[in-house]
C-alpha cells in the first residue's frame, strides 16, 4: 500500500483544539488556492525538485560513475554541510542497511577532532571524496576539501581519480576546480536549493556509490508526485499534512511541530525535516510579519522517556507527527519461555516490532486523552520506495505550507547573513 496519513487525532471529535467540520471545509478551499499557487510556481520552473524527468540523464551519469567507483573504493566520504549532507545521511540510515557497497561517511561539520578521526579511519588509496556544495563556495566544505587535497598530494594520488564534485551546473569555485583539474563533476539543477536536493546528485550520488537502491527511491518519489497532483486536500497527502499543521499553528497557536519516527531506519529523516521546515518557513511574510513553526526531531520509543512528559502536560503549543512502517524487517521474538518479571511477562512470544508498534499507537492515544493533537504517517516498509515517498511528501508539504504562510519557501536570507558575518570575523582575526 502507498504512504497514508491518519488525521483522526487532529479533529475536534478527538481533541478540543481539533478541526471542526466547518473549519475543514474552509481549510479545503484554502488548500486548493495554495495548490494552484504552487502548481503555477512549478510550471514556471521554480520547483526543480519535482522535475525528476529532467534529471534522467544526470541520474544515468550518476549510476554509471557509481558502478565504476564501487570496484575501486572501500569508503566514500561526503564533504558537505546542511542540505548538502542531511539528505545523504537520511538515505544512508533508511536504505543503506543491506548494502554491500563501499562504506558511506558524511563529514557534515568542521569539528577538528571528528574530522581528524575520520581522516585516520580511511585508507586514502581506497577512498572516494565527494565534495558537495550547491554554490561551490561553502567555506566549511572548501576547507575540508583543501585538507583532503593536501593529503592526496602528499600520498602521490591524483585528485581526478579520488575526488568527485557536486555543484552548480555552470558557475562557482568548485565548478572551476573540476574543469581545471579534470575532476568528475555532477550538477545540482539551478532551480533546486540545497535542502530540497536529496533527489539530485547531492543525495543520489553518495547513495549510488554505496550501492543503495537509488531507482527505488526515485520511483517512490514519482508515485508521491502523481498522488499530489490533485487540489483535493483529502486525496493529497502532502497537502493534508501541510494544511493541518498550518491551521494548528495559525488558528490554535500550536507552533512546535514534532516529527517522531518509530523506526531507527527513519531516525535521520527527522533532522532532515527540521532543516527543511525551519529554513523554508521561518521567514517574514508578505505583510512584513515574522512567520514559521518550530520543528523538533524525536525518536520513538526512546524519546517517550524524555520528551513525552512535556508533550503530555507541558504548554499546549505542540503537534506530534508520528512516522512509522507497517512492518519491521528482521523482527525478533522474545522467547515464549523467557524468564521475565510480572511487569513484562506479556512480552513472552511477542516481537520487538510488535512492542514498538504498540508503543507508537499507545503514545498517540495517550496524547489524545490529554487533549494533545497528533497525526500518523505510515509507510509499508523502511525500503527505498517508501522512503522516496516520504521524502517527496515532506518537500511538497513544505512548499504548500509556504503558500499558506505566504512566505517564499525557497530562499534563506537569515542563513546567508550568518555566513557573511562568519567570513568577516575570520578576516578581521587574520588582519
Question: Would you mind describing this structure in some detail?
Answer:
It contains 15 helices and ten strands. It is α/β, with parallel strands linked by helices. It has helices at 21-43, 56-69, 86-95, 112-121, 139-154, 159-162, 173-181, 201-209, 214-227, 237-252, 269-281, 308-313, 352-369, 384-405, 413-430; strands at 4-6, 75-79, 103-107, 127-132, 163-167, 185-187, 256-261, 294-299, 318-325, 374-379. β2 (75-79), α3 and β3 (103-107) form a beta-alpha-beta unit. It has a five-stranded mixed β-sheet, sandwiched between helices. The protein has two domains: 4-41 and 218-414, Glucose-6-phosphate isomerase like protein, domain 1 (Rossmann fold), CATH 3.40.50.10490; 48-212, Rossmann fold (3-Layer(aba) Sandwich). α9 crosses α14. 47% of the residues are buried.
Unreliable residue runs: none
What is the assigned CATH homologous superfamily of the largest domain?
A: Glucose-6-phosphate isomerase like protein, domain 1
**Helix percentage:** 40-55%
Quaternary status of these chains? single chain
Rg is 23 Å
Largest sheet: 5 strands, mixed
- The backbone outline, from C-alpha atoms, is globular
Q: Distance N terminus to C terminus?
A: 61 Å
What is CATH's topology name of the largest domain?
Answer: Rossmann fold
What is the CATH first-level class name of the largest domain? Alpha Beta
User: What is the CATH architecture term of the largest domain?
Assistant: 3-Layer(aba) Sandwich
> Counting H and I runs of at least 4 residues, what is the number of helices?
15
Structural class, from secondary structure content? alpha/beta
Strand content of the residues, in percent?
5-15%
Kindly state the number of beta strands.
Answer: 10
In order across it, which strands form the biggest sheet?
1-10-9-7-8
| Topology as a string of helices (H) and strands (E) | EHHEHEHEHHEHEHHHEHEHEHEHH
